[in-house]
From TrEMBL:
One of its GO terms (cellular component) is membrane. This is Small-conductance mechanosensitive channel. InterPro entries: LSM_dom_sf, MscS_beta-dom_sf, MscS_channel_2nd. It is found in: Membrane. PANTHER family: INNER MEMBRANE PROTEIN, YNAI-RELATED MECHANOSENSITIVE ION CHANNEL. It comes from Nocardiopsis metallicus.
Amino acid sequence: MSPAQWIAIGVAVAISMTLVFVFQWLLNHKLGKVWPMARYVVSRSAVTAYTAAAVVGANLALPSRGDVPWSTFQTIDHAMTILMIGTLTALILSLAYAATDMVLERLSVRNGDADRRARRLQTQVRLLRRVITSVVVVLAIAAILFTFEGVRALGAGLLASAGVIGIVAGVAAQSTLSNLFAGLQLAFSDALRIGDVVVVEGEWGRVEELSLVNVTIKIWDERRLVVPVANFTTTSFENWTKSGTNITAKVQLPLDWEVPVGELREEAGKLITASKFWDGRSWSCQVVDVTESGEVVVRVVASASDTGNQWNIACEIREHLVTWLVENYPQSLPRKRTEFVGGTEEESSYAEQFPTSAFRRATAASGAVHDSSNGTAQSGNAEEV
C-alpha cells in the first residue's frame, strides 16, 4: 500500500478512537448523573471500546480491491474480518457484563446471611452471565473458523451428518453438560446460593463461587474446596442458611455425678442472657445422657442469629462454665472412682494421701480391690482398671 493509504488508515483510526473518548467522557461527566449504568459501561469497555473502534476505523479506510494486488487484498480482508468478529464480540460481552454489574451491585448483600433473596438472585445472574458468555464465545469462534474456505467446506459436510455428530458430541460432553444443567438446577431451584454456609465432605465453609463446572467453597481457615457442580445434585450436603440464618449453639460437658445441676443451670442462664451473641429466642441446660465410663453429660444450648454468633456463644459458654466449675465445684470435674474393700486402716489412710492407681499397684497383693465405676470386686494381684 502507498503512504497515502497508510495515512488514511491512521486518520480513520484516530477519528474513531477520538469519538470513543468523547462518548466515554460524556458518560462519565454528563450522562452518569442521570443514567446509573454509565459508569459501569465506561469501566467495563475501557479497553474493548477503543480496540473495536480502531478495528472499525481501519476497516473503513482499507484500500479498495483495485488499489492492491488480489492476494494482498484477500489476506487483509480476511484478517480484518477476523479482527472485527473478535473485537465486536469482546465489546458486546463487556457491555453485557456492565449491565449485570449494575444489577449485582444493587443485589449486593447488605444484611449478611439474612438477605437470602439477594443472594439467590446474585447466584442466578452470575450463572446466566457465564452461560451467555460461553454461548457467545463459541458462536464467535465458529464464525471465525467459517471464514476459512477449508473449514467452511468441512462444515457443510458436517451439517449433512448432524445427527451422528450430535450423538457423538453428546456422549463426549456428557460430564460437561451434566455440570451445566446441574448448575442451572442449583441456581433456579434455590438449593444453593452464593454466600450460603454449607458443610460438604466434612468441611464447613461458605459458597464463594458457583460456576458452570465447579462450586468453590471458602473454608473457615482460608482454604478453598472445589467441588463439581453435579455432586450437589447427586449427594446430600448441609446448607445452614437454606431457609434462614437462625441457628442453635450446642455445648456438651461430661461431668461427675456430684455436679450441682441447679447451680450450673443458673450460671449458664446468667451467662447466656447477658451475652451479646444470644439472639434472645431460647436457651436450656439439661442432663441428657450418662456415659459408659460413669459420667453425666450436661448439654447447654443457646439460639443465635447466624453462624458467626453461634460459634462465638458456644466458645463463650464452654470457656466460662469450665472456669466456673474449676473454681467453685472442682469435684464436678470428670474422674474415676476406685473403692478399696477389706483393707487395713493403715492402707486406707495411705490411700487418702496418694493417687489411687499408685496405691493399687503397691497394695495389689494385700487385699481385695473394688472398682465402684463398674461394681466389680477383684482380689490379690488384680490389675488396675
